[in-house]
Amino acid sequence: MLKAVILIGGPQKGTRFRPLSFEVPKPLFPVAGVPMLQHHIEACSKLPNMKEILLIGFYQPNEELNRFLSCAQQDFKISIRYLQEYAALGTGGGIYHFRDQILSGGTEAFYVMNADVCSEFPLPEMLDFQKEHGDTYSFVIFGTTANRKQSLNYGCIVENEQTDEVLHYVEKPSTFVSDIINCGIYLFTPEIFQHIGTVFQKNQQDMLLEEQSNGWHRAEVIRLEQDIFTALAGQSKLYVYKTDRFWSQIKSAGSAIYASRLYLNQYHKTHPERLAVNEDGGPNIRGNVYIHPTANIDPTAVLGPNVSIGTGVTIGAGVRVRESIILHGATLQDHSCVLNSIVGWDSTIGKWSRVEGTPSDPNPNDPYAKIDSETLFRDGKLTPSITILGCNVNIPSEVIILNSIVLPHKDLNRSFKNQIIL
Amino acid sequence: MKALILVGGYGTRLRPLTLTVPKPMVEFCNKPILLHQVEALVKAGVKHVILAVSYMSELLEREMRAQEQRLGIKISLSHEKEPLGTAGPLALARELLTDSEEPFFVLNSDVICDFPFEDMLKFHLRHGREGTVVVTKVEEPSKYGVVVYEGDTGRIHRFVEKPQVFVSNKINAGMYIFSPAMLSRIQLRPTSIEKEIFPVMAEEGHLYAMELQGFWMDIGQPKDFLTGMCMYLQSVRQQAPDKLHTGPGFLGNVLVDPTAVIGKNCTIGPNVTIGAGVVLEDGVRIKRCTVLKGAHIRSHSWLESCIVGWSSSVGQWVRMENVTVLGEDVIVNDELYINGANVLPHKSITDSVPEPRIIM
Ligand SMILES: Nc1nc2c(ncn2[C@@H]2O[C@H](COP(=O)(O)OP(=O)(O)O)[C@@H](O)[C@H]2O)c(=O)[nH]1
Ligand SMILES: Nc1nc2c(ncn2[C@@H]2O[C@H](COP(=O)(O)OP(=O)(O)O)[C@@H](O)[C@H]2O)c(=O)[nH]1
Ligand SMILES: [Mg+2]
Ligand SMILES: [Mg+2]
Description:
- Chain B: It comes from Triplophysa tibetana.
- By secondary structure, chain A is α/β, with parallel strands linked by helices.
- Chain A has 11 helices and 34 strands.
- The longest helix of chain A has 19 residues, at about 190-210.
């Protein structure tokens, strides 16, 4: 019997996703029309032995999360529960804290997945791989190849090329170690808790020596990557399953547009019904486009490629949208043009206005390039990135908003370029 | 009567338009710049126009032959081998200008206003001296040559080039009327009329200033070309409002050639000139622009403060602004943002131009 854990983090995480994470927990942000997490859940639900999915995080229970959980349980006919950490316990501390819940019912193996990745989730392949490699107690990391420079932003894995055993693991090194990187998706057997437990005990002892009053808390904070994988490497315990199928992190808002593109492309195989088609009386569709059935779109609008349109969105005559996410309740008035942008919930864009960002796509000429979730500023200047309109932003007619981030509930009255508008 | 127009050189400041067509032939409000002047001169009784040019242009010659016919006047081209400045060309054309005792007009070529030629003649004959300079009021005189003169008589005391402290807000408007006697002051060599001839004439009490009523603009560069267009269209509104286009979707002063085709749901104006054979597709928004002959603007584009060159093509959902000038036959691809670009003829633009620059 299998279970899956999705690490959803908490409100203090996902700062690179502001201002969008002000309105909705980042794991629920829609990517290719559905909440980021739903892609994980769908992949898990396809495994015949999958008994339960546990979301572990440190968000206060909230309405959005509850609503999502109950919908997802119905849609995928599987038990899904949210387990709240009392504080951020790190990527290993949370699963250790809730180990009884994870193992209850006789779990033989379980997946752990970072919420902020987008992937084809080769879960059955990881299971087969585990059977073929090592013994039945071995653990599997899903890995992929990055380019040398970008590998430094990830967990780096050195493997035995014959056996795929992990020989060395280092998280975000400062010099080049390996171009095989950790994709944030693992397959563990219950034995993993012995290894985490060892670290926990050691932490506890260290705490006692330090005479820290909150020692218990600190001892429970454990990082899978630095504290566990680094130690397991070279112990014939940890293996890397590699694929070069699509995978990306979703750290910045810009990467949500890129991830949407990857998932929309996958819909040809998995969900052709979610892709809009050209039909009489409908808008002109170019490439992959998701339109929620409740959206109201003028037939003279031209959408795509890579456009996702949320519930209740209104799109006027002669509107153009490309490489963008339009969140629910937004209105794009006639002749407006939205490129490489995220338009926040209930925002309005006036006639003939142009909302445009600069894509941060990976270098298309490098097959191993990943998206750079760059920091906002470089040399004191805002780096050109996608344009993001927060919730309930009003853009007047005939202006341009270029490479800018507009915080929620702003009424703009002129053009802006390369600015953060508080 | 006669008039000499200082057409001069290549009109580099109005590039890229003047890479295709000599400056006097560039249409300003759907009429070549030069014809605004020539037609006004003809109305004032001028029968012979001399164009002082420092380069030869077949196009200009051919066009002038046609205009001779149409207007029933004589148009001569006076071609200098080396640029003679603003006074030298008068010496070169001396014979043409002195075959009678009548005064003659001299004009800078790219000045637009309500030409006051009849008033100039009257004023000139009244004071009876050798020269009259038309002056106009400007807000920022420090950029120009300022004229200091007696308010009641108009007698000019002196000229101050680009004054650093305020001396007067009246500047030389580039329009003169002279008596033939004045020509004896000029030799056949490069000479500046403003710097070398006028100060002496003023000193001797031979130069008078006449103040221009109404608008005035030197349209020799794109930014001023557009400002001049706004002023000119406003004066059309006052003098011949029927020439302007009105109706749903038209705002303010808009001039549209009858052969232009305009799509549905466009909003045009204020201050737009649409040339012959221009096509604006559906849903175009355009204000404060000149669109020259044969250009094509595709649907849902937004243009402000641009000059779109002859036969150029602007794609769908293009935003173009901030004194962008497209030369002849430029193609702007769909969905681009063009901010203050100066685009040479026959270029195809495939990437946005977010900051002002020249596209070679
Ligand atoms: N439940 C829980 N999840 C976490 C915690 N820290 C990180 N995560 C999640 O784990 C994943 C990886 O996060 P992190 O290691 O911080 O980022 P990365 O190393 O840059 O990928 C993300 O999905 C986070 O939301 C934590 O303390 N508790
Ligand atoms: N024929 C001729 N015209 C000239 C020459 N230099 C200037 N011009 C014209 O004389 C007028 C005044 O020129 P200038 O004093 O340079 O003023 P600006 O062009 O307005 O800066 C303009 O119409 C020029 O085209 C020249 O050497 N020969
Ligand atoms: Mg990490
Ligand atoms: Mg000039």
